[in-house]
Write a structure and sequence with these properties.
CATH topology: Glycerol-3-phosphate (1)-acyltransferase
Shape: globular
Number of helices: 12
Distance between the termini: 47 Å
Strand order of the largest sheet: 1-9-6-2-5-3-4
Order of helices and strands: HHHEEHEHEHEHHEHEHEEHH
CATH architecture: 3-Layer(aba) Sandwich
Structural class: alpha/beta
Largest sheet: 7 strands, mixed
Strand content: 15-25%
Radius of gyration: 18 Å
Number of domains: 1
CATH class: Alpha Beta
């Protein structure tokens, strides 16, 4: 029965021209994503910096442990460009087949340099969070303080010529509050485990700022120069941190 319905859904999607990976933005927005957008009162600016064609790399601050920031960024990109970006996701989404099959239908892909390269070579957009789980699972008391950036996104940009679009997300930190984290789980299970205060998201007002694209000259040589890659990564991290501070100064209230 399950196989029958699975085939039926696949045929229906093929008939409408909607890929499984596009379901999150072409079907769900009318329901879940639109509901969350209204519930969180998501506003955005800088949409003119979003590319209508060609590959691009979205680099954003990560927080809130539930991953709503990835969905909200992706939804805004789709609303303004009708493009479906792929999301580099935490390995927790791919530990079990029954979970990973749904993750892939939502446009999520495992966080590897090779996967990112495949997406960009298809001239598609990519959303990733250089802080990784260190940012997503950090205690809320450290909110809006960027953790160390991983350097893979800069290497991807240098290998493909795809522009990097930094994105500042305000609101996710207070939507799902993390009290602390179980760090010893990293050695035992391979992942940090967050200790949440709430699972149901709080109605915090969100704002997403798409910053001006950063173009790096395509160069395989520079992509393998880790000193250069580290320097560029640090510069982008500082740029995004300054924007977060600027957006926080503008914010008058959290819930209103």
């Amino acid at each position: 029965m399950k196989a029958f319905f699975g085939k039926a859904i696949s045929k229906a999607l093929n008939a409408t021209g909607i890929s499984k990976e596009d379901v999150a933005y072409k079907v769900l927005p009318h329901f879940l994503l639109e509901i969350f957008t209204k519930y969180l009162r998501v506003s955005s600016e800088g949409e003119e910096h979003l590319l209508k064609r060609g590959p691009f790399i979205i680099v954003a601050n990560h927080s809130g442990f539930m991953g709503f920031d990835a969905l909200m960024i992706g939804h805004q990109i789709y609303l303004h460009t009708k493009r479906v970006p792929r999301i580099i996701a935490h390995k927790l989404w791919f530990l079990r087949p029954e979970i990973s099959v749904h993750a892939k239908k939502l446009g999520l892909i495992p966080a590897t340099l090779g996967n990112g390269l495949k997406i960009l070579k298809k001239r598609q957009g990519l959303i990733l969070f250089p802080e990784g789980e260190e940012g997503n699972f950090k205690p809320t008391k450290y909110r809006y303080r960027l953790r160390r950036f991983r350097r893979g996104f800069v290497r991807l940009a240098l290998q493909t010529g795809a522009p990097i679009v930094p994105v500042a997300v305000i609101g996710a930190e207070e939507t799902n509050i993390t009290i602390s984290q179980i760090r010893w789980a990293k050695q035992l299970l391979g992942v940090i485990i967050p200790v949440p205060l709430n699972v149901i998201p709080l109605p915090v007002k969100w704002h997403i700022k798409f910053m001006e694209p950063i173009y790096l000259e395509k160069s395989e040589e520079k992509a393998n120069d880790m000193e250069y890659v580290t320097r560029v990564t640090r510069q982008i991290r500082i740029k995004l941190q300054r924007e977060l501070h600027a957006q926080l100064k503008k914010r008058e209230r959290i819930f209103l």
